[in-house]
Write a structure and sequence with these properties.
It comes from Kribbella caucasensis. The protein contains 13 helices and 2 strands; from the N terminus they run H-E-E-H-H-H-H-H-H-H-H-H-H-H-H. With about 300 residues, it is an all-alpha fold. It has a two-stranded antiparallel ribbon.
């Protein structure tokens, strides 16, 4: 049996943890369970739900070409924007780690876009990417005819990927902080052995940064598969020409709040959850081969 002191400690533990427990049950676990049930119904949010079983999932997987288009577009966006963001973040972090003048100013400028609200950033990019916008003006100076970035099916996804790169400052800051933690003795030993700066970067810097790269990869994948604001603001109607920019979350939003197909939208959300889960597990599975921790012995 628990002693009086242990029971009192347990009581205080649950008392202090109760705000989180209540919040988790009410605002996360409860809605998740309700969403599972709603995904098995036909519900317009005004009348009583009508049970349809797996019909919503069957329709999504076998009779909805827009869903597969949105899934492909989301995968395409994630497959390019996430690695590109990682490479640019690593490159910027390596540049900012150099001993140069006013480097603090450069670090601030690199992180500044991350602090700007995404809606404001999307509105700015909408003007920049306009057919007569600044980007096409610059391309015209060098003799390249600029496309209608947001009006042509071929260019709308590259435009969204370009916007995603704008926020690479968050990953850069984490990588730069990790670079500062790499022991200087490793570089000194490499210099004694005659290793070039490029060799030092690939043999010392990158392996030491793999835990942070892995973290950025996971967060980038989750964020890319849930992209919404950029698509909703930059492409009107949502989806753009020929649904070329239709993504999973905008599709979910349209079904739920434009057409009031709440059951169908809930089914989309759980399929999206399954896709994110699969890619996240794949990333964790492969991490054993390339992520190195200082205290880990392989």
């Amino acid at each position: 049996m628990m002693s009086k002191l242990r029971r009192r400690e347990a009581m205080w533990f649950y008392l202090f943890a109760s705000p989180w427990i209540i919040g988790f049950v009410v605002f996360l676990l409860g809605p998740m369970i309700a969403s599972i049930y709603i995904s098995l119904t036909d519900w317009d949010s005004f009348t009583a739900p009508e049970w349809v079983g797996l019909e919503n999932y069957k329709r999504l997987l076998t009779d909805d070409p827009v869903f597969w288009k949105a899934l492909w577009n989301t995968f395409y966006y994630a497959a390019i924007s996430v690695p590109l963001g990682l490479v640019i973040g690593l490159w910027l972090a390596n540049l900012l780690n150099k001993q140069v003048r006013v480097r603090k100013v450069f670090r601030t400028l690199i992180y500044l876009p991350t602090l700007v609200p995404l809606v404001a950033t999307a509105m700015i990019f909408k003007m920049v990417l306009a057919p007569s916008g600044p980007l096409n003006d610059v391309l015209g100076v060098v003799g390249i005819p600029g496309p209608s970035w947001l009006l042509e099916a071929m260019w709308v996804k590259p435009a969204l990927i370009l916007l995603s790169v704008w926020g690479a400052g968050a990953a850069t800051v984490l990588l730069l902080a990790a670079m500062k933690g790499i022991p200087r003795e490793l570089y000194e030993a490499a210099e004694v052995d005659g290793a070039s700066p490029i060799r030092q970067f690939w043999s010392i810097t990158v392996p030491q940064l793999t835990p942070i790269i892995f973290f950025n990869l996971i967060m980038g994948l989750i964020g890319a598969f849930q992209v919404f604001s950029q698509v909703y603001i930059l492409t009107k109607p949502v989806g753009g020409p020929d649904n070329a920019s239709q993504m999973m979350v905008p599709l979910l939003f349209n079904e739920a709040f434009s057409f009031y197909h709440m059951g169908y939208a809930s089914a989309i959300s759980w399929l999206l959850f399954a896709v994110i889960l699969v890619f996240t597990l794949m990333a964790f599975r492969t991490a054993r081969r390339w992520v190195f921790y200082e205290t880990e012995v392989k």
